[in-house]
Amino acid sequence: MKQAILFAFALLISSISFGQNAWGLDKVHAKMTFTVTHLGISEVDGVFKSFDAKLTSSKEDFSDAAFELTADLSQVTTNNEMRDGHLKKADMFDVEKHPTMTFKSTGISKVADKKFKLTGDLTMKGVTKPVTLDLTLIGTAVDQRSQKKMVGFKATGTIKRTDFGVGGMPFMVVSEDVELRASGEFKAAN
Q1: Mind listing the pLDDT tens digit for each residue in 81-133?
Q2: What does the radius of gyration of the chain's CA atoms come to, in whole angstroms?
Q3: Is the dihedral of CA 183, 31, 43, 71 positive or negative?
Q4: Looking at residue 172, what is its pLDDT?
Q5: Quick check: helix, strand or coil at residue 50?
Q6: Could you give the CA distance from residue 128 to residue 125 in angstroms, rounded to a whole number?
Q7: What is the pLDDT of residues 124-158, one digit of tens each?
């Protein structure tokens, strides 16, 4: 009986994963940024220089897409050496203890043609919180050299930095709200 249950479980797992198509990120055609407001009068942009993501989906319209992302917080730049150094310190990203930020989607819902709401868990500085992002399917294509399918997505959303313990400065200096934006091309693994 025990072997029959294990066999049924293994069959179920293989049937679930069989239909999933894996897609890898084309890092040359990908970008991830954030924006905060400084003193309520200007915007400061930051760039995540080192990150990776993967996508799985079994449907042509990507309405069952699942995303995972990891970003190296020690490689964030705002084009200001002093500010970049401060971002690495304990009151900000604390990269010595928490070198990465991760996102793992938990659900997706189609809201219009090529428009989705993507929900998932964002982990930063040891804190995990649910977030909802606006996701747009930019388009699909076929790579001329490899003949593999390609797809482009853009994700945007807003988080509160203090929900993750980032930055002790008052919101008058740096906004509570942080706008996140990521876009990139994914290439089918097979």
Answers
A1: 999 999 999 999 999 999 999 999 999 999 999 999 999 999 999 999 999 99
A2: 19
A3: positive
A4: 73
A5: coil
A6: 8
A7: 999 999 999 999 999 999 999 999 999 999 999 99
Confidence of residue 32 (pLDDT cuts 50, 70, 90): very high
Burial label, 1 (beta-carbon count in 10 A; 0-12, 13-18, 19+): exposed
Q: Which residues pair with 180 in a beta bridge?
A: 34, 157
Q: Which of 69, 31, 35, 72 is nearest to 184 (CA)?
A: 31
Beta bridge mates, 120: 105, 131
Whole-angstrom Cα distance, residue 127 to residue 140? 35
Helix, strand or coil, per DSSP, at residue 183:
strand
| 3-class secondary structure, 160 | strand
| pLDDT tens column, 55-72 | 999 999 999 999 999 999
Q: What is the dihedral of CA 108, 110, 114, 115, to 10 degrees?
A: -80
Rounded Cα distance between 172 and 38, Å, is 8
C-alpha to C-alpha distances, 156 to 34, 65, 87, 96, 146, nearest whole angstrom: 10, 16, 22, 27, 30
Contact (Cβ atoms closer than 8 angstroms) between residue 168 and residue 190: no
